[in-house]
Design brief:
With 349 residues, this protein is an all-alpha fold. It has one domain. It contains 15 helices and no strands. α1 crosses α14, α2 packs across α12 and α7 runs parallel beside α9. It is globular and about 70 Å long.
Length: 349
């Protein structure tokens, strides 16, 4: 079984996504209890994406690189095209993140998790018309199995307690649904607008793009801080040293997470990335045991974990079979073209 470098790269990205998400979850729980200014936190975190441009510039100007033209450095997308697309994606990402931050204190942990992690279903629905994603029984089955597993894990959390500041409300669940839809749209729209199969530097362009999203946020989204403060919806308060450190760590991890997410989408598809990220729930089991004094999930949740793993394996198999079929069709088409060329070029008698 031959596995392409893109598939291997996407799987490595999934591993990195899971690790960074688990670290962010621990930091964010602490931050929510010490500094309750969700928009300012969101602005700082999204602005940190601009540092990705520094990594791109290191790659661009590294002495041993042999590229000689700007086309070889930017691939299929020039700066003007990428900036325009980054403006669209910055809006989608900021809406998704801010509404999710707002929902945290207005929903139960289980309900929030179940809704937000079901984004793979929304990604699937959006991918069919926008990305021409092929609807197959194995893919539908894989997504359904994964979401069933998410619900089992979310609604059987064991003895984990809700935070003291959690007050579930209809408004909170509306916010997390909005966040989930925009989160799914972020992945699908990025693949639609900012990924091209013939791009010579796909990974570098994913890093460049997330950096431009950060720059757009820095330049265009700071006035909202003043508006929220002026309307008393979120009175501005500068974080203390501890909260500032937490924000900086969360921003660094979020930058890594979203860069890996875009790279994973670039190398595979939004659906593969969204289904793969669901593996963070099984991965959280040993993490919870080690960090939270031996906490373990109840048996119903372990069944959910098994469902998620089974669903991901099912999706990987379905994805591999589909890719193999497409390769065979392409090879068959090339063979037919090669066979017909002598006939087309044969001189008439």
């Amino acid at each position: 079984m031959k596995v392409s470098w893109r598939t291997v790269g996407a799987l490595l990205c999934i591993v990195g996504l899971i690790a960074t998400w688990l670290a962010m979850a621990e930091l964010l729980q602490d931050l929510q209890g010490t500094y309750k200014k969700p928009y300012f936190v969101n602005y700082c975190v999204r602005s940190s994406y601009s540092f990705a441009l520094l990594f791109w510039m290191v790659w661009r100007f590294y002495p041993w690189k042999k590229q000689k033209t700007s086309m070889e450095h930017t691939g299929h997308f020039g700066w003007h095209a990428f900036v325009t697309k980054a403006i669209y994606l910055a809006f989608i990402i900021n809406v998704s993140a801010y509404t999710w931050y707002l929902s945290l204190t207005r929903t139960s942990v289980s309900g929030n998790t179940a809704i937000y992690q079901s984004s793979s279903a929304v990604v699937f629905i959006m991918s069919v018309p926008l990305l021409k994603e092929k609807v197959t029984i194995p893919k539908v089955l894989a997504v359904a199995i994964c979401i069933t597993g998410v619900c089992l894990v979310a609604f059987f959390p064991g003895n984990k307690k809700e935070g003291d500041n959690i007050n579930p409300s209809v408004e909170g669940y509306v916010l997390v649904v909005i966040s989930t839809v925009f989160y799914a749209a972020d992945q699908v729209v990025y693949r639609k607008l900012a990924v091209h199969q013939k791009d010579a530097v796909p990974i570098a362009n994913a890093v460049r793009f997330i950096g431009l999203v950060g720059v757009v946020t820095v330049l265009c989204y700071w006035p909202i801080i003043l508006i929220l403060d002026g309307t008393n919806f979120e009175e501005f308060e500068w974080p203390d040293g501890y909260a500032l450190k937490q924000i900086a760590l969360n921003a660094a991890l979020d930058l890594v997470y979203n860069a890996l997410l875009l790279i994973c989408i670039t190398l595979s598809s939004p659906l593969f990335a969204s289904v793969g990220v669901l593996l963070l729930l099984p991965a959280s089991v040993p993490a919870d045991y080690l960090i939270h004094d031996g906490y373990t999930l109840p048996w119903q949740a372990f069944i959910g974990v098994a469902f998620i793993v089974t669903g991901f394996i099912t999706f990987c198999i379905a994805n591999y079979l589909e890719s193999r079929q497409l390769r065979r069709m392409a090879e068959s088409s090339l063979d037919e073209t090669a066979d017909s060329e002598p006939l087309l070029n044969e001189p008439s008698s």
